[in-house]
Design a protein that fits this description.
Elements (H helix, E strand, L loop, with lengths): L2 H13 L14 H15 L8 H15 L8 H7 L6 H6 L4 H26 L11 E3 L11 H21 L4 H20 L3 H13 L7 E3 L1 H11 L2 E4 L2 E6 L2 E7 L4 H5 L7 E7 L5 E2 L5 H8 L6 E7 L10 E6 L1 E4 L6 E9 L2 E9 L7 H5 L8 H14 L4 E5 L8 H9 L5 E2 L2 E4 L4 E2 L3 E2 L9 E5 L6 H11 L4 E4 L7 E7 L4 E10 L15 E2 L38 H12 L3 H16 L4 E3 L2 H25 L8 H7 L18 E5 L25 E2 L7 H10 L4 H18 L3 H12 L1
Parallel strand pairs: 12-13, 13-18, 18-19, 19-22
Antiparallel strand pairs: 1-23, 2-21, 3-10, 4-5, 4-24, 5-6, 6-7, 6-8, 8-9, 11-12, 11-25, 14-17, 15-16, 15-21, 20-21
Helix pairs in contact: 1-6, 1-7, 2-9, 3-9, 6-8, 7-8, 15-16, 17-22, 18-19
């Protein structure tokens, strides 16, 4: 052991006894509340399961993982001690005994406060980090075992702090400023931990139990209920983003369509917010903060500006950050209505005009509807108007863009389906008592019978999956894109003696009998996905309800387009093999996947710097490859490329990520899926906009067109969807072999 490391060990050993704080005690009313939650789970949740020793063991494991997902505070000896409850938590739950939850949380708090204090002492000492030592650290808790001893824990934290320093230094932070920032961050984490109270501990412990039923079931304390209701409301002032806690970070779960963040187009789902600033004020580091405190900083009055420092969700690493500014506004979850545009596609020398209807959510102004307002807004009413306008424009076919549509009103999903199919069932719903309802039906003849294509992605969820699945089952439309989210459950929020319980009560099934749960909708023609299915989607959620099927329901299939899928697929594969944007997309995804393969992070700063340069170089090469294939001017160097793609302020970075891990429990994402409320998956992303656009409403000037040519971003997914629809239109215009046979028979007669 080197002298420097030994000095750190001695410093830590001295400081571990310096932190003392009274334990958090359980409250008397929590016994009855805990039993109330258990009773609701046992009697009302869709998934019936025995409260036994097997569940007890999973309960213990889940709670420990929630407390320390990175395996950085508890020692193996702590885990062995906690195992005394492995087969007892079920029995204690029946009695309403939450004692073990408080014992384990208090142990975590003690360990955490001790370690954070030691980290501060190290950073404020004259300890010198050697950035030339060729050593590594594994940050992902799933890839590590529990720390075996205090000495092993001290070495782990020395490496972790060193990793944090390297990230800051690579962002051009001065060493002294980097140390100050980390000290500030650790002090923030100490403050946040000291602010935890009995209500927080109870919520965490209750949610560990609730999560064993499915990922969308959770208990909301009175304080969390208030935040949840704000997220569920139709109107609030802020940036329009749903946030969740992931390890030490505040992560964007969903960008609300039509909100300020969505309209700006920079903030994306999976981005991590590491600092927040008001207007031109100094950024405040928020790593380790409570989610409700971060939300409080981000919310604000209309027309005020908030600055966010981000680690991009799709970034190669957290060694680089960016700062964006968003002007707050009134956020209405239903503000962004369905919109249409016309794109022009040249297919085999034939020019086609295709209507594109972007449907961001299945919304409905229920309040106006109940008041019998004849002008109430809804997805179906808006799409019906857009269909009429597109028919007047004499479009050749229509693309329904459901990418990133997290769902919404079940009623609207049914009514929208009614615009495109004749009378018949749309979806089946089975409740916890295995009763199946088939009341959601199309009630009238289709309003549009022309060529139709549905575009989905991994973030198309819930009501989107019902709609896309129905059109696919009926053979009404070709579905293209990537496999959808797989959220096929319905949640109900019920009041408790204190707080609320959100629990899964029903499950969706297609008319074919297949569930949309877990599997989602598999497109007829699949595109490369921007999201790893092993990381995003219902299938990656712990304890997600499984896929299954029930009896199909009689329905009249419109088999006209299904027969063309093999031909359309072959044409698609031939076309994308030489399409510059598709080739670039595949290349970029392959590069990203290969980059994330290493579990261990080097703590040699020169190796890290070289790796970062190599990443930029590879991306630069891929971009110039794309530009060459498109006949565009190549970037002269990486500096020109970075300058042209810069989207943020030149603020000094003030933080970085320090670890990767599993989702924590404080989730304020709006995923409460009822027949009259908004539905959302755990994540979402705004659409990129695209290709040759003809605006039916506004004529563009020559200057406008020139500017669009300079700054227009391609949307290869929509572009290719247009080509597939064009192929479909061509094939529909040709008689099939069966039709030719029928015609021949008629001629013979």
């Amino acid at each position: 052991m080197s002298r420097a490391i030994l000095a750190f060990v001695l410093t830590v050993s001295f400081s571990l006894n310096a932190v003392a704080i009274a334990p958090i005690e359980k409250q008397s009313d929590q016994t009855a509340l805990y039993r109330e939650i258990l009773d609701r789970l046992a009697t009302r949740h869709y998934r019936g399961q025995d409260i036994n020793d097997e569940l007890s063991a999973r309960y213990l494991s889940t709670y420990i993982e929630m407390l320390d997902p990175l395996k950085s505070y508890f020692l193996q000896s702590d885990i062995e001690e906690f195992n005394q409850w492995s087969s007892k938590l079920d029995d204690l739950a029946r009695r309403g005994d939450v004692g073990p939850g408080f014992v384990m949380f208090n142990r975590l708090r003690d360990r955490m406060l001790e370690q954070l204090s030691a980290n501060i002492e190290l950073l404020e000492s004259d300890y010198v980090f050697d950035y030339s030592v060729d050593e590594t650290i594994v940050l992902d808790g799933e890839q590590r075992q529990w720390l075996q001893s205090a000495a092993e824990q001290r070495d782990y934290w020395r490496k972790r702090i060193k990793d944090s320093m390297i990230r800051l230094l690579l962002n051009d932070k001065e060493p002294v400023k980097a140390r100050e920032l980390l000290v500030k961050r650790f002090n923030n984490q100490i403050t946040q931990m000291e602010q935890r109270d009995s209500q927080d501990v109870f919520q965490l412990y209750a949610n560990a139990l609730a999560s064993l039923y499915d990922p969308h079931t959770s208990y909301f304390s009175p304080r969390t209920t208030e935040n949840f209701q704000i997220n569920m409301s139709l109107s609030l002032e802020g940036i329009g983003a749903e946030l969740r806690t992931e390890d030490e970070y505040t992560k964007v779960a969903r960008v609300i369509p039509g909100g300020p963040a969505d309209m700006q187009g920079i903030l994306k789902a999976s981005d991590k917010i590491i600092a927040v600033g008001q207007g031109d004020e100094e950024l405040v580091d928020v790593i380790g903060w409570r989610i409700d405190d971060v939300v409080h900083l981000i919310r604000g009055a209309k027309d005020s500006t908030v600055r966010l420092e981000l680690i991009e969700g799709g970034s190669d690493s957290s060694d680089s950050t960016k700062v964006i500014a968003i002007v707050r506004d009134k956020v209405k979850l239903e503000e962004k209505s369905a919109q249409s545009k016309i794109i022009e596609v040249n297919q085999n020398g034939v020019d086609l005009r295709l209507g594109v209807i972007d449907i961001p959510a299945f919304y409905m102004d229920f309040d106006a509807y109940r008041k019998r307002d004849p002008e109430y807004k809804s997805t179906t009413r808006d799409v019906y108007k857009l269909l009429s306008e597109l028919r007047e424009e004499q479009v050749d076919g229509i693309v329904l863009d459901l990418r990133n549509n997290g769902g919404g009103s079940l009623h609207e999903a049914t009514m929208l389906t009614d615009l495109f199919i004749n009378t018949g069932p749309v979806v089946q719903i089975r409740n916890a008592y295995q009763q199946v309802s088939r009341d959601q039906r199309a009630m009238m003849r289709a309003a549009y019978n022309g060529p139709l294509l549905v575009l989905i992605n991994r973030l198309s969820a819930s009501a989107s999956e019902i709609f896309a699945g129905a059109l696919q089952d009926y053979g009404r439309a070709i579905v293209v894109g990537s496999q959808s989210f797989g959220k096929g459950t319905v949640q109900d929020v019920t009041g408790l003696s204190s707080g609320q319980l959100k629990l899964t009560v029903s499950k969706f099934y297609r008319v074919s009998g297949d569930s949309t749960q877990h599997r989602g909708v598999v497109p007829d023609i699949e595109f490369p996905s921007l999201y790893d299915k092993d990381e995003v989607g219902e299938s990656q959620q712990d304890n997600a309800l499984p896929w299954d099927n029930i009896h199909s329901v009689p329905f009249k299939s419109m088999s006209g387009v299904k027969q063309f899928v093999p031909i359309l697929t072959a044409e698609h594969e031939l076309r994308i093999a030489s399409d510059p944007d598709f080739v670039h997309l595949v290349d970029t995804l392959e590069l990203s996947n290969s980059w994330d393969a290493d579990n261990a992070v080097s703590l040699d700063i020169e190796k890290r710097r070289a790796r970062s340069r190599d990443w930029d170089k590879r991306r630069f090469i891929l971009e110039n490859k794309r530009r060459k294939l498109k006949g565009l001017e190549l970037y002269a160097d990486q500096k020109a490329w970075k300058s042209d793609n810069k989207t943020s302020d030149d603020d000094d970075t003030e933080a970085e990520t320090v670890a990767e891990g599993d989702d924590n429990t404080e989730d304020v994402a709006n995923d409460s899926d009822t027949a009259v409320s908004k539905e959302a998956p755990e994540v979402a992303l705004t659409n990129s906009k695209d290709i040759s656009v003809v605006d039916a409403a506004d004529a563009k000037t020559e200057e406008d067109e020139e500017e669009e040519e300079d700054i227009a971003e391609t949307d290869p997914m929509l572009q290719e969807a247009g080509h597939i629809l064009a192929d479909q239109i061509r094939l529909l215009a040709k008689p099939t072999s069966k039709q030719m046979m029928v015609r021949s028979q008629k001629v013979d007669k």
